[in-house]
Amino acid sequence: MDAPGTVARGDLLIRDDAIAALGAGVPAALAGARPDAEFDAAGAFVVPGLVHGHLHLCQTLFRGLAEHDDLLRWLRERIWPLEAAHTTASVAASARLGLAELIAGGVTCINDMGTVRHTEAIGEALEASGIRAVFGKALMDQGAGVPAGLLESPRAAMDESLVLARRFHGAGAGRLGVSLAPRFILSCSEALWAEVAATARERGMLVHTHLAESPTEAREVTQAVATSAARYFAERDVLGPGFVGAHGVWLDDDELALLARADAALVHCPGSNLKLGSGLAHVGAWRRAGIRCGLGSDGAACNNRLDGFHEMSLAASLSRVVGRRDPRPGSPPPLAARDVLALATCDGARALGLGDSVGVLAPGRQADIAVVDARGPHMGPAPERDPYVALVHAARPSDVRLTVVAGRVLYRDGAWTTLDPAAVGATARTELTGLLRRAEEAGVA
Ligand SMILES: [Zn+2]
């Protein structure tokens, strides 16, 4: 995924946490020495690890529990009450279950939005898992249907975000970053957005939020603030190079221009947009406007997979449908498979401000790598003829043989090095039982 689009057969050498050499450069870099460890990647593609631009690890326990609703009903009737029933232990179990799935699927970096409480449990799970991540607690201080347990004052919301930042920003040898994560316009007051904008500027923190996701949400936003989401953010100085907005399905061209001018980033979540019936984002138009773009799965409650390959396949195919609906002259062409792999790797890293360190296989970059076996029948007969098409349209998480973050093997041929999948699964089931009991006692579930 370097700028010239190099595809080469050869070796890759990792030293400490970084890529030391590639291909012809490997013998010279080894200088006659033998590597401490080797992995035979014959018959596989070695690619930059996948970057998941938008996710809620706290919702992994809710997988299959919130079906058949559109966004606002899904949030108000299912997700928020379930989030309010979380404890530190259930959030930790939810995060670890999601991380086991992500790491085995070649994901090396995520951008997570937690729930309002217990976000330190997500930070601890991220740190122990070895994955690279930006994460933040969801900020909510108002809104119809928000349970009391998820509401807090703007001051308390910001103070806890800063406590998390002091503890986790730069933790895990620099793998972790902490963001400000105001949930969306309908759950955050004007005062809270002002605090977010000022603090993000002062401390250089990412602002991770949702915008323009569904038509009913867009309508309620217009009723509440008399303008659209991107305009609201632009007027309040929320947009900037650290802004990462998920979904963006219903942004118009003027709003895309506002985002581009501010150098804000958007994250495409096609699986979630389809399953919640939210709509089809026009990612070609985002790219044409010059916006940095990434790809994400959103949480397991609205997808229900945390699967970068599924999202890539959807993004590539949906761009053909969306492009055809845009009758204007000069409408952007469908995304090529390489463009889509870029969304999930180098472009996704740039969307999170990590473009200089990950997303590309090149000497000096962080060794965040996935090895994807190409020998399965579903990849045949000749995946090497177009590796981008093979990876985007045919590969699956189960093809991933090796996941490496900062030079450390996190997953190898069915075995996790930082997570015990049997224990993770058992704890998740136990915690789900407790969570549903608490939700029932609170009158939901
Ligand atoms: Zn989301």
TrEMBL record:
<dbReference type="InterPro" id="IPR050287">
    <property type="entry name" value="MTA/SAH_deaminase"/>
</dbReference>
<feature type="domain" description="Amidohydrolase-related">
    <location>
        <begin position="45"/>
        <end position="409"/>
    </location>
</feature>
<dbReference type="InterPro" id="IPR032466">
    <property type="entry name" value="Metal_Hydrolase"/>
</dbReference>
<keyword id="KW-0378">Hydrolase</keyword>
<dbReference type="Pfam" id="PF01979">
    <property type="entry name" value="Amidohydro_1"/>
</dbReference>
<protein>
    <submittedName>
        <fullName>N-ethylammeline chlorohydrolase</fullName>
    </submittedName>
</protein>
<dbReference type="GO" id="GO:0016810">
    <property type="term" value="F:hydrolase activity, acting on carbon-nitrogen (but not peptide) bonds"/>
</dbReference>
<dbReference type="InterPro" id="IPR011059">
    <property type="entry name" value="Metal-dep_hydrolase_composite"/>
</dbReference>
<dbReference type="InterPro" id="IPR006680">
    <property type="entry name" value="Amidohydro-rel"/>
</dbReference>
